[in-house]
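User: Second chain of the day. Same drill as before.
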Amino acid sequence: MLSKGEADKVRVALEANGQRFTHQRAAVYACLQRTTTHPTAEEIYLQVKKDLPAISLATVYKALEALVAAGLASKLVFGDHSARYDSRTDKHYHARCLGCGTIQDLPATVPSPFPEPQALVEGFLVTEYRVEWLGYCAQCRPQYIPDLQEAPVGRPSEIF
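Assistant: Same format as last time:
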């Protein structure tokens, strides 16, 4: 459940984007706020359905699209066309496990491997970009890379 302040924030953002505030959208937003796992629409649906048994998967998809359009969530689409959702809308990077598909947020202190986007192509206006690190999480690493004894140790900003 959202606090009054959070509900007001969602209402203002949705209405500023020409959309209605509904209790289904509020429930989907609340579910997304409670997790850092970058869930799929189906995973969100299963969680929200516990509180709103009559909600449909289609309603969850529509709510997620409304939240993304209003700037309250981010939609992450990967090479396999799977979509996951992130409650963080600030610029940050992700590390995605090629074994199990989990996605982790990297700290904002990880430096960008690229120059300023505007400097890449003269006259080209970059409106968005994404950086994704691919590899294997601690649980999958032994299965996929058995010869690797251990991962680099230290804070991410020290490793990169």
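The helical segments are 4-16, 23-33, 41-51, 57-69, 141-144, 156-159.

User: Great, on to the next one.
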